[in-house]
């Protein structure tokens, strides 16, 4: 098992390239099930979750392999299995994304209930109810979702709560479903929009992506596609937090600012500044850290996936900040670890009150989930002395070569075998 060893405080300078979005890549990989032609995705990050999804597709008898650089090749013309086993699905919640495509393509699905980060209850009941509305018979048997559908037909589907993977599953299933499907209270996330754009290039008829109501007119066949995945807005936001906490000026290449309004607003409110250099490069600068109030919300609100990173920054703010977490009930597990570094944080229900301190001190801390890992790395960049971040396998699920990118900016960070 690996750990990060960080010697701080750091001062960063240089350029960081923002990788492709994991959360956009995974549903696109699942969407390859919908066609018997070749799918090539570019700008796909080199991450464990991507490897897991590739292994899952191979298990279904698809071809999946990484080409040179950041391209993934998928061909599901020979798919003949609807079985997504527990040993693959347990490590990655996004495995549920094969549920809709399998039902649409094979009229059956046998998918293990998913795992992933332990940040709270993320039920699949919304997915199941949606597929039932499309005409599938769905049961839970021995930890598996077992679904069959002689014929899927378009329907109106209302989500009580906007769900990203639920919206994506319905989008993919509805693309090959007879008739019109209307998704109400749909997720508006940029990754959902990117998936819809890819499906449209494949021949799907979709209207309203990025809005609360999406309409899908089913077609009989989808074609292959070559598509570039959007850049990762959460990775870009994480580097913004790194610049804030270290008071550094760095350049980001391919940061998707069009999808980051809430993150950018808080970055500026905390004390950062952004200057556009050209169409692909921005300069970000961290200055004095001001206290703020943050409330997580579904897109276009402030993303829960950036809450931990901003909390790390706010531990050094000039005053008191409040973060309210409205998405996941267990997403303050990083607080105890930040306190080990010297942070002053109190938890009351779903709110964290952060009283800024003058400095952080290095310590050994343990990552509890993907974004918590990032928050501890960010805090370690600013802490005085040596910080060891354990269990970074969480981080490897969502950040491509983070320590190498930070090292290229001047950080003293090393990956070490425990």
UniProtKB/TrEMBL annotation:
**Active-site residues annotated for this sequence:** 117 (proton donor)
| Location in or out of the cell | Cytoplasm
| Biological function | Cell wall formation. Adds enolpyruvyl to UDP-N-acetylglucosamine.
The UniProt catalytic activity note for this protein reads:
phosphoenolpyruvate + UDP-N-acetyl-alpha-D-glucosamine = UDP-N-acetyl-3-O-(1-carboxyvinyl)-alpha-D-glucosamine + phosphate
Check the record and name the InterPro entries matching this protein.
Answer: Enolpyruvate_Tfrase_dom (IPR001986), Enolpyruvate_Tfrase_sf (IPR036968), MurA_subfamily (IPR050068), RNA3'P_cycl/enolpyr_Trfase_a/b (IPR013792), UDP_GlcNAc_COvinyl_MurA (IPR005750)
Name of the protein described by the UniProt record: UDP-N-acetylglucosamine 1-carboxyvinyltransferase
Gene Ontology molecular function: UDP-N-acetylglucosamine 1-carboxyvinyltransferase activity
Query: Which residues are recorded with the post-translational modification 2-(S-cysteinyl)pyruvic acid O-phosphothioketal?
Result: 117
Q: One biological-process term from Gene Ontology?
A: UDP-N-acetylgalactosamine biosynthetic process
Under Enzyme Commission nomenclature, its number is 2.5.1.7
| Pathway in which the depicted protein is active | Cell wall biogenesis; peptidoglycan biosynthesis
- Enolpyruvate transferase domain: which residues? 7-406
**Any GO CC annotation of this UniProt entry:** cytoplasm
């Amino acid at each position: 098992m690996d750990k990060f060893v960080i010697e701080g405080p750091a001062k960063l300078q240089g350029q960081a390239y923002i990788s492709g979005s994991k959360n956009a890549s995974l549903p696109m990989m699942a969407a390859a099930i919908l066609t018997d032609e070749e799918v090539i995705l570019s700008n796909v990050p080199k991450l464990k979750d991507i490897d897991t999804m590739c292994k899952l597709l191979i298990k279904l008898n698809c071809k999946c392999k990484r080409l040179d650089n950041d391209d993934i090749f998928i061909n599901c013309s020979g798919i003949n299995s609807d079985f997504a086993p527990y040993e693959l699905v347990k490590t990655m919640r996004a495995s549920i994304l094969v549920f809709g495509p399998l039902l649409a393509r094979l009229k059956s699905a046998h998918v293990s209930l998913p795992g992933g980060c332990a940040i709270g209850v993320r039920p699949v009941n919304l997915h199941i109810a949606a597929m039932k509305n499309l005409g599938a018979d769905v049961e839970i048997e021995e930890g598996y979702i077992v679904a069959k559908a002689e014929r899927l037909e378009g329907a109106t589907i209302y989500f009580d709560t906007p769900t990203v993977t639920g919206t994506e599953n319905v989008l993919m299933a509805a693309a090959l479903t007879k008739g019109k499907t209307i998704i109400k209270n749909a997720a508006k996330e940029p990754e959902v929009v990117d998936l819809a754009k890819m499906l449209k290039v494949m021949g799907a008829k979709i209207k309203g992506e990025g809005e609360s109501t999406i309409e899908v007119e089913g077609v009989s066949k989808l074609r292959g596609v070559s598509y570039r995945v959007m850049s990762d807005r959460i990775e870009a936001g994480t580097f913004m937090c790194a610049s804030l906490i270290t008071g550094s000026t760095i350049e980001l290449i391919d940061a998707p600012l069009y999808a980051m309004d809430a993150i950018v607003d808080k970055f500026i409110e905390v004390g950062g500044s952004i200057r556009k250099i050209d169409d692909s490069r921005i300069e970000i600068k961290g200055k004095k850290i001001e206290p703020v109030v943050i409330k997580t919300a579904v897109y276009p609100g402030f993303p829960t996936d950036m809450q931990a990173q901003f909390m790390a920054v706010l531990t050094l703010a000039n005053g008191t900040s409040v973060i309210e977490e409205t998405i996941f009930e267990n997403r303050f597990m990083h607080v105890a670890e930040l306190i080990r570094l010297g942070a002053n944080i109190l938890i009351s229900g779903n709110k964290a009150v952060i009283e800024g301190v003058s400095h952080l001190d290095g310590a050994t801390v343990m990552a509890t989930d993907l974004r918590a890992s990032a928050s501890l790395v960010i805090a370690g960049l600013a802490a005085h002395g040596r910080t060891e971040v354990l269990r970074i396998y969480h981080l490897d699920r969502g950040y491509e070569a983070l320590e190498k990118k930070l090292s290229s900016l001047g950080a003293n960070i090393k990956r070490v075998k425990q």
